[in-house]
Amino acid sequence: TSRTIRHASNKTAPKKKSSKPLVLEKPTKFNPPSHGSRLPRETPRYPGPQLSAEDIAMQKTNKYPSMMPPDGSFMHWFLTNKALHMYISLTTLFTLAGIVFVTNFQRNSPFADMIPPWQDLFLHPMNYSRRWLEILRLNAARTTAETDARRARKVDDVAKRAQYRKAHGLDKDDGFGGWTVKNDQELLDAVMPPTVSVSVEADAESIKEKKKLKKWLGIW
């Protein structure tokens, strides 16, 4: 006798595919799309009654958040006055330039100890200005003297070099101001040795002696 052993299985037989298309369930409520297919029409605007002169004047004097101050107020004048802004800018620039000038003068000039204290500008403005003018004149005279001395040293150095060259016979070949006058041949000899110049001339003559090639239609 033979026994047939069958095991339990969860697999089910495959269902046959239906030829009918899937139909979605009808919603209980109509949900329109977020964007319509047509642009919305402009709704009529009702501006209301025309404002009176008192209302317009009141709007100009009212202060609204995140907006310019109203006309006629101090802040509106301060923010829109161009002359005031130019005056503030120029005053700031001239003040900074004066501070830089005084600081450099005190650091580099030997007359810095003669500068009067800044309190005298308010107590004695005339004397303060005269003192500053005297200091500036002294500084200008010192700068002029240093420049003249520097130029005199350079002229003396040039004269001493000329005397040295004359004493040692080095000024015979000099031309105008120590520059020599040479012709073209001397300049070429100084740049190229004679052997190089001869070879260059020979190459030039050999190039000239070559026959010109006949060309057809200017190409071959």
TrEMBL record:
Region described as Disordered: 1-50
Keywords carried by this UniProt record: Membrane, Transmembrane, Transmembrane helix
Superkingdom of origin organism: Eukaryota
Compositional bias annotation for Basic residues: 1-19
Transmembrane regions: 84-105
Protein name per its UniProtKB record: Uncharacterized protein
